[in-house]
């Protein structure tokens, strides 16, 4: 998703040049009327995958039947078929990791750092690929608090895979270089990283078209022959209520039931088995946002202390990465997403980062490999913050003690 209205450019069907697999559904770039979160939710319920939010309108992706529904409601401003030339891709994105390269890099890190780094499969994708989790820490003791970082729920969001992978590399490097803070975390906490939740979709996005496919979902196939479920609409907390589509061809198709997909089942089972996970961050792209519960309702989190904690942590992290912090439903309602489930079912203090860039015009889902390091660098402090406070997130709300026993600093 993105903030600000994107410039609409004349386009032709994005899926031209597809090398193999099923035909891609015709995908359209839509601009529609929406002046507030309630009107944005109305469009989201129609199946529009909202990617840009302005004062009086939104932009996003929709299939043909959804475009017609938006048109019939009198909300359509403009529509253009998608075109791969719109994104003006860089000629070389070789620094991004495909699935085999990702696994190889993780294995190398594990082999070189066996005392603090391990990898294991938490399950198989629809097409049989392992979904890998990295563990950084001296052991897997349930007595140690843990932070969990995830990427790659949505296939086309490749930067969301590189960022958690870079976190793993950073922690190992800092530990080996004698960083005492990181050494303390390795000794006393556990960091779990699932860099790629949706390996099938990610591989399809980079291999099955003449250029990127703009694919979002996984690669399961329904009885009608349509492909893919939006994994970030498939989690079980109040699944299927708002902000997701029952149409299997839609980009926001929620699946036939909660946790119908092997990928979300794997994440669920992993978290269910680890009550020591206290903080969670799931990476997405794009639009430079920090989102926190709730997504399924406009209501605030009922627990006042938790609400204050979410707001305080989001605002603190925004001070480092300059993203915009807000409750997820302030954009529009969604159900079945990762963070609502993690907090609603387990009380985990979880956030979604919508990474750079800020708009489709700046590259959208495919901003180029120059973004890999710069995005990680601006997010190091927020990621360290979530690890530091995973022992007890509520420490964030404790008074900061300054000189002379004061809980607030002296003011001139």
What are the key terms here?
412 residues; Aminopeptidase; 2 domains; eight-stranded mixed sheet; 18% strand; 10 helices; alpha/beta; Alpha-Beta Plaits; disordered N terminus; 30% helix; five-stranded mixed sheet
Tell me what the structure shows.
There is one protein chain. The chain has 412 residues and is of the alpha/beta class. The chain has helices at 37-45, 64-72, 99-112, 159-176, 180-188, 199-207, 262-272, 304-321, 338-346, 370-388; strands at 2-3, 27-33, 49-53, 57-63, 76-81, 117-124, 130-136, 146-150, 190-194, 277-285, 289-292, 324-327, 349-355. The chain has an 8-stranded mixed β-sheet, sandwiched between helices. A 5-stranded mixed β-sheet has the order 1-3-4-2-5. It is globular, with a radius of gyration of 21 Å.
* Element string (H = helix, E = strand): EEHEEHEHEEEHHEHHEEHEHEH
Instruction: Specify the CATH class of the largest domain.
Output: Alpha Beta
Helix content percent band: 25-40%
Strand order of the largest sheet: 6-7-9-8-10-13-11-12
How does the helix and strand content classify structurally? alpha/beta
Question: CATH topology of the largest domain, anyone?
Answer: Aminopeptidase
CATH architecture of the largest domain: 3-Layer(aba) Sandwich
**Assembly annotation:** single chain
Task: Quickly count the domains.
Answer: 2
Major β-sheet profile:
8 strands, mixed
**Rg (CA only):** 21 Å
Number of helices: 10
Extended strand count: 13
């Amino acid at each position: 998703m993105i903030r600000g209205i994107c410039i609409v450019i004349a386009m032709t069907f994005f899926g031209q040049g597809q090398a193999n697999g099923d035909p891609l559904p015709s995908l359209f770039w839509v601009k529609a009327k929406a002046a507030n979160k309630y009107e944005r939710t109305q469009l989201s319920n129609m199946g529009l995958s909202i990617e840009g939010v302005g004062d009086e309108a939104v932009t996003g992706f929709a299939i043909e039947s959804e475009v017609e529904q938006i048109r019939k409601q009198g909300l359509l401003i403009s529509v253009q078929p998608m075109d791969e030339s719109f994104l003006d891709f860089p000629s070389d994105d070789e620094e991004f990791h495909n699935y085999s390269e990702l696994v190889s890099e993780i294995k190398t890190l594990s082999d070189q750092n066996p005392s603090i780094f391990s990898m294991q499969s938490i399950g198989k994708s629809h097409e049989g690929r392992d979904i890998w989790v990295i563990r950084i820490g001296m052991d897997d003791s349930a007595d140690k608090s843990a932070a969990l970082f995830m990427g790659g729920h949505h296939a086309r969001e490749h930067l969301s895979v590189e960022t958690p992978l870079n976190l793993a590399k950073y922690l190992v490097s800092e530990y080996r270089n004698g960083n005492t803070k990181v050494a303390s975390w390795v000794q006393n906490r556990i960091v779990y990283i699932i860099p790629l939740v949706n390996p099938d979709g990610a591989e399809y996005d980079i291999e099955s078209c003449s250029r990127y496919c703009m694919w979002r979902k996984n690669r399961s196939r329904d009885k009608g022959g349509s492909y893919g479920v939006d994994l970030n609409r498939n989690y079980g907390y109040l699944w299927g209520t708002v902000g997701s589509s029952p149409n299997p061809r839609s980009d926001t198709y929620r699946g036939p039931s909660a946790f119908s997909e092997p990928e979300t089942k794997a994440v669920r089972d992993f978290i269910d088995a680890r009550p020591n996970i206290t903080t969670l961050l799931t990476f997405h792209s794009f639009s430079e946002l920090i989102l926190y519960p709730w997504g399924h309702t406009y209501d605030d989190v009922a627990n006042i202390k938790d609400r204050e904690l979410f707001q305080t942590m989001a605002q603190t992290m925004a001070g480092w990465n300059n993203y915009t912090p807000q409750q997820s439903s302030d954009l529009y309602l969604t159900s079945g997403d990762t963070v609502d489930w993690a907090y609603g079912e387990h009380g985990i203090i979880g956030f979604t980062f919508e990474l750079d860039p800020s708009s489709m015009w700046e590259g959208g889902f495919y901003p180029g490999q120059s973004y890999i390091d710069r995005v990680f660098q601006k997010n190091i402090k927020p990621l360290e913050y979530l690890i530091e406070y995973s022992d007890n997130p509520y420490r964030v709300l404790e008074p900061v003690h300054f000189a002379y026993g004061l809980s607030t600093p002296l003011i001139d």
